Amino acid sequence: MKLSNPRLCGKVTFSTTASINQSSAPIRTIREVPELRQYRNDLRRAYLNGNKGSLGFVPTLGALHDGHIALARRAAFENDHVIVSIYLNPTQFGVTEDLGTYPRTWDEDLSKLRSLNDELQASKHAKGKVDVVFAPTTSMMYPTLPPSSDPNGDGSFVTITPIARLLEGAARPVFFRGVATVCMKLFNLVQAERAYFGQKDAQQVALIQRMVKDFHLDTEVRVCPTEREADGLAMSSRNVYLGSRRRKAAMALIRMLRSIEGRYMKEAMRTRGALLDPYARMSGVIQQRAPGVEGQEVKYMIDYVSLTDSETMEEIDVVDPERGATLSSAMLMLPLEGLKDGEDPGEADGYKRTVRLIDNIVLPPLTKIT
What we know:
The chain is of the alpha/beta class and 370 residues long. The chain has helices spanning 33-48, 66-78, 106-121, 138-141, 168-171, 175-190, 202-214, 243-249, 251-267, 272-276; strands at residues 7-8, 28-30, 55-60, 81-86, 130-134, 194-198, 220-224, 285-289, 297-308, 325-333, 355-363. The strands form 2 sheets. Strands 1-7-6-3-4-5-2 form a 7-stranded parallel beta sheet, with helices on both faces. A 4-stranded antiparallel beta sheet has the order 8-9-10-11.
């Protein structure tokens, strides 16, 4: 069975036949590799005996939000069984990054997955449900050497270049090495027919698609739309650090991208200069102040605004009307200098830390715009 071509998946809608309050079967937690392999072998044997056996896989770091749940929901609509991994992979965090304070919400994560299973059980159209959460230890995932977060550190790593050096890779030099390495390990262990990723992490998607192609992995990469808050902010596990003041200012990111998208869609602008030059001045620290409120400043920086080929993530000067492009950006929300009485500080004193936000919009081929 050849399942290597990436495809874009859409939103899931469904009707139900029963109450969503009914309790579904418990989700099995697997932490050891031999147990996971035994589970996978059992599925294969059941398939050979005439039972349904397709497997979907959703890799996560934990701290699940509605974006992760949407991926698991899509996987359950397209597969008979679903595995969600919850593993906070240390090799994709640099030595100065937030591994130690990254949200860990195990009980809440399991509760959200159980609620999803209740929803799926009541659906007319879902094929499967979340059967397993794979939650390995780091010693299980990296059995030989302690994993290194140093760019020149020792270890068995997968590197996909030049994608891993571009954009986010320039700011986070070990990030994509860690992502590729852990996904290669997980793909080898789970051996799913399909793996599900969100479009919000466009560069990660491109990296995983290249890895699957170059290493002839028998897993189809399914890319699902970015899940957003009601106001348009892309969902991220790090949003909890923002607090109310920076949360409002963070909307500048998607507003900028949508403005550029409008120039492309409505005015058919295709050159890099025409699309991005109006935003070239957005460098250095930008300060916003809530209208009429003293001491309510928010400071942020735009790290980059990028126009790239969607497969290679390399910068382009002109959008090919037959291929389209990816428009992406990263914003650094800088720490607040202080809080007002009663102000939401963000979780874990998030107002004291810099929060990196990323987002992107896929510009479709002009030939498909009617």
